[in-house]
Specification:
about 190 residues, alpha/beta, Rossmann fold, 5-stranded parallel beta sheet, 7 helices, about 15% strand
Length: about 190
Amino acid sequence: MSTDSGLLAAQLDGLQETLERTRALLPLIAETGREIRQALRSGGKLLTAGNGGSAADALHLAEELVGRFDKERPSLPAISLCGDPTLLTCIGNDYGYERLFSRQIEGLGRPGDVLVIFSTSGNSPNLLAALKTAHARGLKTIAVLGKTGGAAKGMASHELIVPSEVTARVQEVHTFILHCWLTIIEAELD
């Protein structure tokens, strides 16, 4: 086996181990998926946020709801708070990076909406501020985290903490979680 093949096999083994430890989260993944589905069914919308690779997860979840995941169905209301570079640079410039998401929640968030944040560390000040603002405005909140959960641990209505200290494994499982939610949401639309 080449050195590269050995490295890749170790990556795959690490992912399989993390996925097996994630099995314990399945009831909470299902519960939060149903909560998102109920909010959308009741006229609420989904707001998503994250930084870096976690912003990609936030974008991914929102686009699959507005577009489609696996089945042809009506578009669903979801907005990624990391998707508009002009808005992000405006808020960052005028209010500071810490208010990047909370400022948007002030304008867009309503009771009955759900905020989902993605963070491998749980320590991003702009996501912590987003959770506080969402809570103050009456939104339900779901924190999809990794490692120890960081400072975000205990701040959301629900938290899913991927049992890994490895950022790549956390992000891979975050994608699995958002795909599970999409499956739950679209299954009801059959």
